[in-house]
């Protein structure tokens, strides 16, 4: 039945700031960008190397996130990386605060968290 994740949708408060973060800092490829006048909203379609997509939306009216990260609903978005050390250094070179790297007690894999410009919790997991 289900065969994978197609996309994750994110609503941002500052479109240009988030567009820069997801493209220049995280390196996602722009597939399409549209301004939807009737909604006064941008929709930016981004793609990861495996084909998974992130849809970045801007809306003039949005509800703030209830808490970080233990709100009901989406807890965080996780990305796979080849090298935890290189990825952390890359993020830090853009002044992104990265939590200390942890080891998952069940998989013995490295992982850590950081946040996007709207404080959305993001995770990186080493292959």
In short:
This protein has 127 residues and is an alpha/beta fold. It has two helices and eight strands.
Radius of gyration: 15 Å
CATH C-level name of the largest domain: Alpha Beta
Domains (count): 2
Proportion of β residues? 35-45%
Protein name: Glyoxalase/bleomycin resistance protein/dioxygenase
Keywords: Dioxygenase, Metal-binding, Oxidoreductase
Pfam families: Glyoxalase (PF00903)
InterPro entries: Fosfomycin_Res_Enzymes (IPR051332), Glyas_Bleomycin-R_OHBP_Dase (IPR029068), Glyas_Fos-R_dOase_dom (IPR004360), VOC_core (IPR037523), YwkD-like_dom (IPR037478)
Could you explain how this protein is built, in words?
- The relative contact order is 0.19.
- The two termini are 26 Å apart.
- The protein has 2 domains: 1-61, Roll (2,3-Dihydroxybiphenyl 1,2-Dioxygenase, domain 1); 74-127, 2,3-Dihydroxybiphenyl 1,2-Dioxygenase, domain 1 (Roll).
- A 4-stranded mixed beta sheet has the order 1-4-3-2, covered by helices on one side. A 4-stranded mixed beta sheet has the order 5-8-7-6, with no helix packed on it.
- The model has no long low-confidence stretch (mean pLDDT 91).
- The chain has helices at residues 15-25, 84-93; strands spanning 7-12, 29-36, 41-47, 53-58, 77-81, 102-103, 110-115, 121-126.
- The chain contains 2 helices and 8 strands, in the order E-H-E-E-E-E-H-E-E-E.
- InterPro entries: Fosfomycin_Res_Enzymes, Glyas_Bleomycin-R_OHBP_Dase, Glyas_Fos-R_dOase_dom, VOC_core, YwkD-like_dom.
List key phrases describing it:
dioxygenase activity; four-stranded mixed β-sheet; dioxygenase; 2,3-Dihydroxybiphenyl 1,2-Dioxygenase, domain 1; 127 residues; oxidoreductase; 17% helix
